[in-house]
Amino acid sequence: MTDPKKPDQPIGDDWASAMAEQEGGNAPSAADDDPWAEAMAEQAAAEADSAAAEPPPTPAPARAAGDSVFRPLEQGGGSRGARDLEMIMDIPVKLAVELGRTRITIKQLLELAQGSVIELDGLAGEPMDILINGYLIAQGEVVVVEDRYGIRITEIITPSERVQKLNK
């Protein structure tokens, strides 16, 4: 039987020669069988020779990653910080003063009419919450200035106090 692309060569010659090698004991040697083992042995020998010739390298002193990643702050960097702060000064924020809160049902909401009174959880004389973009930042008391309401800040809320208020 012949290959149509190679009519002068029989198909089975490669298989026949491989089978004959295996049966005849012409198997490859151990070094030919595992070239990685030979390469690893050569590498181990080379490393042993270099280790005997050279003293072990001394480790470099440890450095913080920040030294190479972040540039150090300069002493005269105050003007740059002020310039960066100026960039955000004109960003508008929403300030709200909250008298109190309550929960009502939809039925109660639909029954509300002009003149209805809604009871809030805030007490009279209690400081009002001052919210910036929905976050509590201070507390204050209501004042009237020239027939307009205002709020006088009495306490600035620290970040730890903000977290405690969220847990209520």
From TrEMBL:
Ranges of residues in domain Flagellar motor switch protein FliN-like C-terminal: 87-157
Compositionally skewed regions (Low complexity) per UniProt: 37-53
Disordered, as annotated region: 1-81
Keywords: Bacterial flagellum, Cell membrane, Cell projection, Chemotaxis, Cilium, Flagellar rotation, Flagellum, Membrane
Protein name, entry field: Flagellar motor switch protein FliN
NCBIfam families linked to this entry: fliN (TIGR02480)
Taxonomic path: Bacteria, Pseudomonadati, Pseudomonadota, Gammaproteobacteria, Oceanospirillales
Domain of life assignment: Bacteria
Membrane topology type: Peripheral membrane protein
Function (record text): FliN is one of three proteins (FliG, FliN, FliM) that form the rotor-mounted switch complex (C ring), located at the base of the basal body. This complex interacts with the CheY and CheZ chemotaxis proteins, in addition to contacting components of the motor that determine the direction of flagellar rotation.
Family classification: Belongs to the FliN/MopA/SpaO family.
Pfam family, one: FliMN_C
UniProt-annotated location(s): Cell membrane; Bacterial flagellum basal body
